[in-house]
Amino acid sequence: MARVHSSHPFGKEPMRTFAIMLLLSAPAFAQGDEKGFEKLCNGKDLSGWKFTFKDKDVDPAKTFAVRDGIVVCTGQPTGYMYTERTFKEFTLRLEYRYKRPDDLKDESTFAGNSGYLLFVQEHKVWPRSIEIQGMNRDVLGIIAIQCKAKFESDQEARLKARKPVGEWNAVEIVVKDGKITASLNGTLVSTVSEYEPKEGPIAFQSEGAEIHWRNIRIRDDSTTTIRGKLAFRDVEGGCWTLEDKDTTYDLHGDLQGCKHGDEVEVTGRVAKDKVCVHQVGTIFEVASIRRLAK
Questions:
Q1: 50: burial class by Cβ within 10 Å (0-12, 13-18, 19+)?
Q2: pLDDT at 276 (0 to 100)
Q3: What's the pTM?
Q4: What's residue 169's pLDDT?
Q5: Are 175 and 35 in contact (CB under 8 A)?
Q6: 290 has a pLDDT exceeding 80
Q7: How many Cα atoms are found within 13 Å in the side-chain-facing hemisphere of 127?
Q8: How much is the pLDDT for 25?
């Protein structure tokens, strides 16, 4: 399957991070706007996830478990669970809450900590990655772990959007066109305008406090460009296909007047884990198509 890789080196100067405080706002994402999303947790177990801990010989089930459809992390010992799959451009949505201490009276003193590591590059504690903070005090702040990032965060927006400890909060992280945005309960808190690395697994941290997650889902927004000759297969219902290298794609979308035999360049998205019902090829959702000069 064709895959496009990109890199954006910032040179060999010493690692730095940049933080600029700005007022940022964004409308809440519509709860019903779920087209193209898939669950990252099946609500029964943690199939599709792997685990890394600071200490060796740790039983992951004692730290991460699924109870009544909710992922429960004890916070002990330090480590993380990460996706088996890698991601490049995506929209990640989830809800989280911390277990509220019985004696908590001042919200500002709650030190609950966790986080979301994007583009994990090695499996150690802590790995090279872009961290979207899960710590209650600085939720959705940005930390560049052994890498570089240029970002903006808004503390005032964070404090207004964050719900009390023990209540569910909605998080949306969008990676698109070289930018990362992180929103809390519909309010934009942080924007990353430059970052490296740009592709890898996503990890959820265990870092000292009990935290719960639910409704973890993702839409893979990565685009791929494929090239080849269009063919119309005479199967039930008809099927447009294109062969690029050793992969055959079943094209779904508007072919904009292109016809059988045309040499074309198609940009779009591979539908993960899906094949044509006629077993012709992997489903490719067309975003744009153009004829190539012969």
A1: middle
A2: 81
A3: 0.75
A4: 98
A5: no
A6: yes
A7: 26
A8: 32
